[in-house]
Automatic annotation (TrEMBL):
Protein name (database record): Cystathionine gamma-synthase
The keyword Protease appears for this protein: no
In-chain residues carrying the UniProt-annotated modification N6-(pyridoxal phosphate)lysine: 205
Species whose genome carries this gene: Pelagivirga sediminicola
A Pfam entry, by short name: Cys_Met_Meta_PP
Superkingdom of source: Bacteria
C-alpha cells in the first residue's frame, strides 16, 4: 500500500498533464496564451509579476520550459525561436578564443555556425569522426577545450555515441559536454542523467511533433557562468520562443511519448522489411541489431530508438532522387519528427561541402499505419530502380 502511495509519477504522466496544470482563476486545464508584449507596473512602479516585456520571457514560454526541464531532469530550460538560435547562443556564450571539439558530420546548420566562428577567429574548432571516442579524445587541446559537441544518433547515418563515456572524456579534460539528441527526444534519451552538462534539442522536431512550430531547447544539469551567459545572449538578441509557439509546443508535447512509441514501431517495421533488399545498399537504423551502435542505443534509449532511419539506394544519386519523388505518402520535404512521414535526399538539402552519401535518403517516419508506409516505399523503389 505505502509503496504505491510513494511511487513517483512517471515523466510520461506529468507530460500528458502538462505538469497537472489548472488555471487558478477559471479552472481551465488548457493554459491561457500570454500574448502581451508589455506589462503594466504596479502602484509602486514595481513589476507586478517577474515580467516586464515579452522579449525577456512570459508565462506561456516558461510553462513549456518547466515541462521540458521536468522531462530532462534539468535544473533549468530555456526555449528559443529555433534550434539554430539555441545552438547559436551556446557558441556565442563561449569566451572568445575557446576551443570546441565537434563531429565532422553533424546537423549542417550548426556545423555552418561553427565554421563561421572559426573563420572570424572567435572560436577554434577541431572535428572528430562522429561516434569515435578515441578521435574525440585526440581532438582535445588540454587546458583550452571548453566544449565537446555530440550529436547522437548522428545525422544522417545515425551513428551512435556513448553519452556517458563522452561525458567522462569531457570532464577529465575540464570541458563541458553538450548533446544534440534531437532524433531521440527526452522520452527516449535523458542526456543530462547520462552526464551531459547541456542538452540541446530542436523542439521543432519530436518535442512539438506537428511540423507547425520552430523552437529550440537548452537544458542544463547545473546552472553556472556558462548558463548565465547563454541566458544573456537570448535576452540581448531577443530570440526567446514566442508565447503562441510555446502554447503549440505544450499542446504537442502532451502526446510525445505516444507519438514516439508509434514512430519507433513504424521505423522498426520499415527497417526490418527493407534490410537486405536487393534494391538497397544499406538500411541505417540503430534499432536494427546489425547497426554498429545498436547496443549503446538500446541502453541510451531504453529501446525507444525513434523514427529516424536512412536508406542508401543502389543506382546512385539519380535513383535516390527518383525514389523520393515517386513516393505518394512520404512527403519529399526536409525536417523530421512530425506525425507525417517525410523522405529527404540529404545531399541536395545539406548542399555542397558536406560529406553525405549521394544516394542516401533520410526517412522521418510518422504515426501512419506501417503497412501503408511500406507499400509506398515498395512502389517508389520499383518505379525508380
Ligand atoms: C533541425 C535540427 C537542428 C536545428 O533546429 P531548427 O529548429 O531547425 O533551427 C539542429 N540539430 C538537429 C539534429 C536537427 O535535426
Amino acid at each position: 500500500m505505502s509503496d504505491r502511495k510513494n511511487r513517483p509519477l512517471s515523466p510520461a504522466t506529468r507530460l500528458a498533464q502538462a505538469l497537472h496544470h489548472v488555471e487558478e482563476r477559471t479552472g481551465a486545464l488548457t493554459p491561457t496564451i500570454q500574448l502581451s508584449a508589455t506589462y503594466a507596473r504596479g502602484a509602486d512602479y514595481a513589476p507586478r509579476q517577474p515580467y516586464i516585456y515579452r522579449r525577456d520571457s512570459n508565462e506561456t514560454t516558461e510553462h513549456a520550459e518547466a515541462i521540458i526541464a521536468d522531462l530532462e531532469g534539468a535544473a533549468a530550460t530555456l526555449l528559443f525561436a529555433s534550434g539554430m538560435s539555441a545552438a547559436g547562443a551556446v557558441l556565442e556564450a563561449l569566451p572568445s578564443g575557446a576551443h570546441v571539439v565537434a563531429p565532422g558530420v553533424m546537423y549542417h546548420g550548426v556545423l555552418q555556425q561553427m565554421q563561421k566562428h572559426q573563420t572570424t577567429g572567435r572560436l577554434a574548432i577541431t572535428h572528430y569522426t562522429a561516434g569515435d571516442l578515441d578521435a574525440m579524445k585526440a581532438a582535445i587541446r588540454p587546458g583550452q577545450t571548453a566544449l565537446i559537441w555530440v550529436e547522437t544518433p548522428n545525422n544522417p547515418d545515425w551513428t551512435v555515441t556513448d553519452i556517458a563515456a563522452a561525458a567522462a572524456i569531457a570532464h577529465e579534460a575540464g570541458a563541458r559536454l553538450i548533446t544534440d539528441c534531437t532524433a531521440t527526444p527526452p522520452c527516449c534519451t535523458r542526456a543530462l542523467e547520462l552526464g551531459a552538462d547541456i542538452s540541446f534539442h530542436s523542439a521543432t522536431k519530436y518535442l512539438n511533433g506537428h511540423s507547425d512550430v520552430t523552437a529550440g531547447a537548452l537544458s542544463v544539469r547545473r546552472a553556472g557562468a556558462l548558463w548565465d551567459a547563454i541566458a544573456d545572449v537570448r535576452k540581448l538578441q531577443g530570440t526567446v520562443l514566442h508565447s503562441f509557439d510555446a502554447w503549440l509546443l505544450i499542446r504537442g508535447m502532451r502526446t510525445l511519448t505516444l507519438r514516439v512509441e508509434r514512430q519507433t514501431e513504424n521505423a522498426l517495421a520499415i527497417a526490418r522489411h527493407f534490410e537486405g533488399d536487393p534494391r538497397l545498399e544499406a538500411v541505417l537504423y540503430p534499432g536494427l541489431a546489425s547497426h554498429p551502435g545498436h547496443d549503446i542505443a538500446r541502453r541510451q534509449t531504453d529501446g525507444m530508438f525513434g523514427g529516424m532511419l536512412s536508406i542508401i539506394v543502389k543506382g546512385g544519386e539519380r535513383a535516390a532522387i527518383d525514389t523520393a519523388l515517386a513516393c505518394r505518402l512520404f512527403y519529399p520535404a526536409t525536417s523530421l519528427g512530425g506525425v507525417e512521414s517525410l523522405i529527404e535526399h540529404r545531399k541536395t538539402v545539406s548542399g555542397p561541402g558536406f560529406d553525405v552519401h549521394p544516394a542516401l535518403l533520410r526517412l522521418s517516419v510518422g504515426i501512419e499505419h506501417a503497412p501503408d508506409l511500406i507499400d509506398d516505399l515498395e512502389q517508389a523503389l520499383d518505379a525508380a530502380t
